[in-house]
Design goal:
369 residues, nine-stranded mixed beta sheet, alpha+beta, binds zinc ion, 2 domains, five-stranded antiparallel beta sheet, 27% helix, 8 helices, Aminopeptidase, OB fold (Dihydrolipoamide Acetyltransferase, E2P)
């Protein structure tokens, strides 16, 4: 195991932060698998799972079972981790500009696409190497203005050329689920069976250039520009490890075992555990519909994440006790109620829950802010 402490230049005199990256296996070995947690810095199931995974990786390395190159960044956002306001972690957005820490990653196809003109031949594997080198060059030359810009580059400089990128998040209250593109359905299936995810939300391009998409969308864009000689070598996903309060060692240790099974299944480890679950249900991200609160008030549920619901079914209530008014929260589509908001009060117009169905109901930018 090799550990890197990467300093981030401080935003103000006298301050610095450090990003810590861990490596197992040989540099240059394939597959290269990159895992990070805590990019939204109020989501701790992922970092705790990675803590347990790192112990398992130490053991695997001692037994000579690491065949690929595995990188773990257990706390990917030291900026967000330090940002508390009024005794609560803020986590999702930076306090300077209120930008979502998981949006706006560099568009590598836009940055590197022109440099590839005339350089690609008929061999997809050779082209993958050429493209990855161009991505590395683009990241090395990327303009860094803020501390958050620098964090984004320091994360991507080790992840951009990975075969597999797993970004561990969590939701408010939710069943285990993940987001994936259509690029590598074989790996999507494998990930579901190794992690025990209930749901996989599938979409070619979700919009917003989240960290996971910043690793898959460029290959798609380059294929559109240069054709089939551009391979699709990277599988990248955002995994939602249930809800924000689902943080305990028993669950995290089981989840780490699931990731060991996945690492073994993709060839990064030898002799790992077998997948222990059935496949995740795959549904279109554009079929996941949010219910918005019609009034502000107290939120109470008669359902919970994981329930199968039909359109119009009562899921809970919003109660304005001051005016003695109560409205029903109803299922916006038929399918799986996979997440609910954590808070027990809401503002008018606030999203309260999502139901994932088969029917396409949305288009455009498919991720919430
Ligand atoms: Zn998140």
């Amino acid at each position: 195991m090799r550990v890197e402490s990467v300093p981030l230049s401080g935003p103000s005199p006298g301050t610095t932060r450090t990003l810590t990256r861990y490596h197992w296996g040989r540099e240059g070995a394939r597959p290269k698998v990159y895992l990070q947690g805590g990019l939204h810095a109020d989501e701790m199931p992922g970092p705790l799972t990675l803590f347990h995974l790192m112990n398992l990786l130490d053991q695997a390395e001692a037994e000579g079972r690491v065949a690929g190159h595995v990188i773990v960044v257990p706390l990917a956002n030291p900026i967000g981790l330090s940002e508390w306001l009024l005794h609560k972690p803020v986590g999702r957005r930076d306090l300077e500009g209120a930008n979502n820490f998981n949006r706006g990653y560099p568009d590598l196809a836009a940055l590197a696409g022109d440099a590839l003109e005339g350089k690609l031949g008929p061999d997809p594997a050779a082209n993958a190497r050429i493209i990855r080198a161009a991505f590395a060059q683009a990241l090395a030359e990327a303009k860094i203005e803020t501390e958050v810009d620098e964090l984004r580059i320091r994360l991507m400089e080790v992840s951009h050329d990975a075969d597999i990128v797993l970004d561990l998040h969590c939701d408010h209250r939710a069943v285990m689920h993940f987001y994936a593109s259509t690029a590598r359905p074989d790996i999507t299936d494998l990930l579901g069976r190794c992690t025990g995810s209930t749901l996989a939300l599938i979409e070619d391009v979700s919009g917003g250039n989240a960290f996971d998409e910043a690793h898959t969308a460029p290959w798609r864009a380059l294929r559109d520009r240069y054709g089939d000689a551009v391979p699709q070598p990277c599988f990248s996903t955002t995994l939602e490890y249930r809800g924000q309060l689902d943080v305990d060692d028993t669950t995290a240790a089981q989840d780490a075992e699931g990731l060991m099974a996945f690492l073994a299944a993709v060839g990064a480890l030898t002799d790992g555990p077998a997948p222990a679950h059935g496949p995740a249900e795959e549904l279109p991200l554009a079929g996941a519909v949010e219910y918005m609160a019609p009034i502000g008030g107290i939120v109470s549920w008669v359902t919970q994440p994981g329930d199968r619901v039909t359109e119009g079914q009562v899921l809970g209530h919003v109660t304005d006790a001051a005016s003695r008014q109560r409205v029903e929260i109803t299922a916006p589509t038929t399918g799986l109620l996979f997440r609910q908001e954590l808070w027990t009060s809401c503002l008018k117009g606030q999203g309260l829950c999502h139901v994932a169905g088969k029917e396409i109901r949305r288009q455009g930018n498919l991720l919430s802010n």
